[in-house]
Structures are given as C-alpha cells and as structure tokens.
Specification:
Blueprint lengths: L10 H27 L1 E4 L3 E5 L6 E4 L3 E8 L8 E10 L2 E8 L4 E6 L5 E7 L4 E5 L3 H10 L5
Parallel strand pairs: 7-9
Antiparallel strand pairs: 1-2, 2-3, 4-8, 5-6, 6-7, 8-9
C-alpha cells in the first residue's frame, strides 16, 4: 500500500510567478513596439523619424546644411561607437549615437551596410536614415526637393 502526499503551494509563490510573467511580457512589449511601429515620414517641409517608446527626431528644411546619399561600407568614419540614447538590437538601431569621427548622430537604420541618407544639420549633428526601401526613399526626397 502506498500513500501520496503533496505540498500546498503558498499564495506568495503564485503572486511572485505571476509578477515575473507580467514584467517579462511588459519588457518584451517595450522592445517590440518601437521596432514594429517605427516609421520615417517625409513631407515638403519636414522629415520625421520615430515610434512610440523610441527616440524620435523632426527635421525641417531650415535645419539642414547638406543632404547626401552615401555607402556606409565606404564611410567608416560614420560608424557608431557609443549609444547615447536609443535602441541597439542586431539589425536595428534607432536613437542618438556617437560616431567614430566624433559627431553626434541620430540613427534609424536596419543594417550598417549599403546606402543611407546623411542629413548634415546646421548645428553640427547628423541624421542617418536607411529605411528598408532606400531607393524609393531617396527618390521621394529628390521629388520633394530635399536632395538636389
């Protein structure tokens, strides 16, 4: 004859387990939202890059000194060295970074290779944008007069 006895799980164990699960879901949500909702909006008067819960920037034409399209593989001086404020995940960088040339730049890029639009602001900062459809982005900028 065999008898089986079990321990009662105290309520505090359930509370802690549920609290940990809620915190993990919240953290995953915070990381997921900026990636999914990030967008770059372009109009005749401004360029906006951002998402909820992520650093954003709005640049007007009057803020700009120069705009050019560059190949990031060639421009090693533009490589980010330190993340100042933003999100840095593999294949996704959004926010303010210090570059290897000493400049401060707002980055919104998927991968650090291929073409990107570099916006040189009058205050010395840079904005580096490389959306998924970079060719259509550059074409739109040219059409709206951002790139000559």
């Amino acid at each position: 004859m065999e008898f089986v006895f079990k321990l009662v799980v105290p309520p505090i164990v359930w509370i802690i387990t549920i609290a940990i699960a809620v915190v993990l879901i919240f953290v995953i949500f915070l990381l997921f939202i900026p990636e999914v909702m990030f967008s770059i909006r372009v109009s005749e008067n401004y360029i906006y890059a951002g998402a909820p819960l992520a650093p954003s920037i709005k640049v007007s034409k009057g803020d700009i000194a120069h705009v050019e399209v560059v190949n990031l593989e060639v421009r090693k001086d533009l490589s980010p060295t330190i993340r100042l404020y933003g999100i840095g995940l593999p294949g996704f960088r959004v926010g303010w970074y210090k570059l290897s040339n000493g400049s401060k730049a707002y980055l919104a890029i998927n991968e650090w290779r291929g073409k990107a639009v570099i916006i040189d602001l009058r205050d010395g900062r840079l904005v580096i944008l490389a959306p998924k459809d970079i060719d259509r982005f550059v074409s739109t900028l040219r059409q709206l007069g951002w790139i000559k």
